[in-house]
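Course assignment 3, question 2. Fill in each field.
Student: A.L.
Task: Predict the tertiary structure for the chain below.
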Amino acid sequence: MALRGVRVLELAGLAPSPLCGMILADFGAQVVRVDRCPRSAMNADVQGRGKRSLALDLKQGPGAAALRRLCRGADVLVEPFRHGVMEKLGLGPKVLLKENPKLIYARLTGFGQSGKYAKSAGHDINYLALSGVLSKLGRKDENPYAPVNLLADFAGGGVMCAMGIIMALYERTKSGKGQVVDASMVEGAAYLSSFLWKSQNLGLWNRLRGENLLDSGAPFYETYKTLDGKFMAVGAIEPQFYEQLVKGLGLDSDKLPNQLSFSDWPEMKKMFAAIFSKKTQAEWCRIFDGIDACVTPVLSLDEVALHEHNKERSSFIKNDQEEISPRPSPLLSRTPATPSPRRDPFIGEHTEEILLEFGFTKEEIAKLHSEKVIEFNKPKANL
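Answer field:
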């Protein structure tokens, strides 16, 4: 795989950093998740595919020293803590890069490593708000709303951080030097929205939120409820696609207002909604499948892996626990990702084997264990 041989230490965190680590693992990196010790009752990382777990107490001096030693043999460290936490532990980039100048030190936070909010708490909705993106999300006459926690946490955070790590690894092949990756979810979400910034003068966003072409204002870029309580997604922007939409709905475009007549959009939406409500989702699929009307079913998570298109592309995979998840993306023709079929690791499941790989002796490991700096959690065999 593309990242084969890359050794990654991922300090356990919530949501975005586990995704970052999983992306690297899916494409071949050896990812060790450094879990907190003592371990909590619940493992919060549901994105542990392909990772191994080492349970280590960084708040104890020997634990911090152990991580420093691990970092000497690692290519990448991913840390998700607020600004200053790692420095207090004596594990900041100045220390670790001095000991391993080739280390890629990735810092994934909400507000970044500097600025007024660098040490502040926050969540996806806060980062999205500060990025400006949240102001664009929402229907007419409603408050702005965040589309679950996908945009800032995962896209602006986890994916952007993984991209930064891979770029830093590539640059290292030329310079031989590591560097710090400062991945801010605010800035990541803002960068994702570059189209919104760059298209300000195109007339796409001249109207109030919820009244524009792409924010639920247009009748031809909307979701509609079907007879069986499901939904269809319509994205017929271009005139030729809009014409196919109108025909599929059984309407005559010559008897309708102009597609871009903003004042008629509310009534057009009502008309389209009434028509869509008269047939089931399956019936609409039979009408629009194979027609370039940009009309598709809104699939639930239970349905998506069974859809013919996704089945043909093997877009979803099962692990050895029969759990379904998306296949890694994008596809690489020569070195594709081969995600691990195994269940996610238990906290501390691989503590001993990882430390042995990084040069710790059995005696050193036993001492760390007796001092409760590390934990073991070997699963019991089912007999």
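Instructor remarks: DSSP finds 14 helices and twelve strands in the chain. The mean pLDDT is 94.
Grade: pending
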